[in-house]
Write a structure and sequence with these properties.
Length: about 425
């Protein structure tokens, strides 16, 4: 693992193998006027701040510049960035991947968007033309991320993502007054007048990703679904499961405020980790054969065993497999496991035998938001999906650094914020 890290670091330092064409997609170019804007930037482990940075300009004919009207913090990916555990990010990098706004400028080859249009921005950046995009596998786009670091670490590269690391395109994020969106016709979705920002904003990630979690798990009518983690993704994965027709949704959580929301607002059965030592045993007492679908919405930082805590602490692994073991132990034979939470490196004691011996189907991966926008919009309009169920705090832009800490440490009931610019 150290050898992989060292190789990746060397590549970052030398900036090897960059494609001069795709470089214009990710790297910021300042507005010719010299204008600046406010943005949330990474300032080291567990530290972010508001800083004046160059206002972006159009650098490719398919770009648009969006004037941000609302943004939020991802309690998963942004918290991973905040923790400093994701390699490949420098101080001053603009964070965030969940925003909506108004088209302020458009490139000459943008076809479907015009100045003044309200849009939500997909967190994943796709070109729309490569072989992966043509199969609608947008998060595997071959054009927008030329990271050789990812090729070394994984044998292939992911699409670029706003506000993430050198592995994922090094594209400035969306927690800023203005955002440059490459391949805008692919990565922006028009918001109709009847969908206000407080609802449309969350199409950028949460509402699409939670639906993707159910798709990965092949949730069907009549299923029982168990979900590890009652953060925004876990909550709305459960809500989508209800809409699909699941007969039972069981959430597993330890944070009291999240337990309350899952139970009272979403109507889930909830297992309180503070009261239950053996989660699989509890689940199997409720559902003797186990649930049809298990969804992991927790991620690589969550540990339950001392062994995993020690191995992560001393660098023997990057990711804990504790939750995955609980999922595999609990789900029924021939069941489906959906891994929607972030995992980034290696994990020891990974329970591969469970997959084989229980005949499990395991699927994972980031969400291609572009595939779900129409379906999410329909659910928003009908009221079947309402993101206001998860919003616990409305904050001002200058308050976002404080909100990062509250979300990371799960303080003061923080679950999801809404920031209007």
């Amino acid at each position: 693992m150290n050898e992989i890290r060292n190789t990746a670091t060397n590549l970052m330092d030398k900036n090897l193998g960059r494609n001069p064409v795709s470089e214009t997609y990710g790297q910021p170019v300042q507005d010719p006027s010299g204008a600046t804007m406010k943005a949330v930037v990474f300032d080291g482990s567990k530290s972010v701040k508001i800083q004046q940075v160059p206002k972006p300009t159009i650098t490719h004919p398919k770009d648009v510049i969006i004037k941000t009207t609302a943004c939020t913090i991802c309690s998963g990916s942004d918290s991973h960035m905040f923790s400093g555990e994701i390699p490949g990010i420098d101080k001053g990098a603009v964070l965030g991947h969940e925003s909506c706004g108004i088209v302020a400028e458009r490139g000459p080859e943008v076809k479907d968007l015009f100045v003044g249009d309200r849009v939500v921005i997909a967190f994943d950046i796709a070109c729309g033309s490569c072989s992966f995009c043509k199969r609608r596998e947008f998060v595997a786009c071959d054009t927008t991320n030329d990271s050789k670091i990812m090729d070394v670490n994984y044998g292939a590269h992911h699409s670029a993502i706003f506000g993430y690391t050198k592995q994922l395109g090094d594209v400035p994020g969306c927690q800023a007054e203005y955002i440059r969106v490459p391949f805008a016709d692919v990565n922006c979705y028009k918001l109709p007048e009847d969908i206000p920002d407080i609802k449309g904003l969350y199409m950028s990630d949460v509402l699409c990703t939670s639906l993707h979690a159910c798709e990965l798990g092949n949730v069907k009518e009549g299923n029982t679904v168990a979900i590890w983690g009652m953060g925004p993704i876990g909550l709305f994965a459960g809500r989508w499961a209800q809409l699909i027709g699941a007969k039972r949704v069981i959430g597993i959580e330890s944070v009291p405020e999240r337990i309350k929301i899952a139970s009272s607002r979403f109507g889930f059965e909830v297992i309180n980790r503070n009261e239950v030592k053996d989660v699989p045993k509890k689940i199997l007492s409720m559902i003797p054969n186990g649930p049809d679908v298990a969804i992991d919405a927790t991620g690589f930082r969550f540990t339950t065993s001392m062994l995993q805590k020690v191995e992560r602490a001393v660098g023997l692994e990057t990711d804990s497999s504790d939750v995955l073991l609980e999922c595999f132990q609990s789900v029924r034979k021939y069941g489906n496991v959906s891994i929607i939470a972030d995992y980034v490196g290696t994990s020891n004691q990974f329970p591969i035998g469970h997959i084989m011996m229980k005949h499990l189907t395991v699927r994972s991966g980031q969400c291609p938001c572009q595939n779900y926008f129409d379906r999410v919009l329909e659910a928003l309009r009908s009221g079947k999906i309402n993101p206001e169920w998860m919003i616990t705090h409305k904050v001002k832009f200058d308050e976002l650094p404080d909100a990062y800490g509250k979300l990371f440490y799960k303080k003061d009931g923080y679950l999801k914020v809404f920031c209007e610019l």
